[in-house]
Design brief:
single chain; four-stranded antiparallel sheet
Length: about 160
């Protein structure tokens, strides 16, 4: 087995008085596929959000224990959240856009990591939207707020007003 890349020790997470995670102990190997399987509401997503400290953004959340990623306890008060979130990304089942325009949401990662020049953004946005068959629907609305559109995972846009 590979050396663990993530080590979880005595992890507990509370939403107010409700304990969502209880005494989790788990080693996750580097460079291996790991699946979390369980019924709805059992804490899978809550655990995943711990890995980049997204739960910090929720009022009333309290976390105890340790989560060691590449040798660093990410739950320590002095943990560098920007560095952590550069290393630990999240892909959600449903889109979770920033309060920016559609265009700005698409180029956000490129800009933060300086992976492309500004003059390349427009082509990358078009290529990205074409690859997921959304270019025709969104090309005229790239500078509208991404929050004005709620997407469903199966049929594109959930709001008829958004897609017109």
């Amino acid at each position: 087995m590979n050396e663990p890349s993530i080590q979880i020790r005595d992890l507990n997470l509370f939403y107010g008085d409700f304990q969502a995670l209880t005494d989790i102990r788990l080693d996750i190997a580097a460079r291996q596929v790991t699946a979390l399987i369980g019924p709805s509401g059992c804490g899978k997503s809550t655990l995943l959000r711990v890995f980049n400290r997204m739960n910090d953004l929720i009022d009333g959340v309290r976390v105890t224990g340790e989560v060691i990623i590449d040798g660093e306890n990410i739950l320590a008060p002095c943990a560098d959240l920007l560095s952590l979130r550069e290393k630990v990304g999240m892909v959600f089942q449903r889109p979770n856009p920033f309060p920016l325009t559609i265009y700005e949401n698409i180029v956000f990662g490129l800009a933060v990591h300086r992976l492309a020049r500004r003059n390349e953004y427009a082509g990358i946005v078009e290529q990205s939207l074409r690859s997921v068959l959304l270019w025709d629907d969104l090309k005229d609305r790239l500078h509208q707020s991404a929050l004005s559109c709620r997407w469903s995972s199966s049929s594109g846009c959930a709001s008829p007003a958004c897609c017109r």
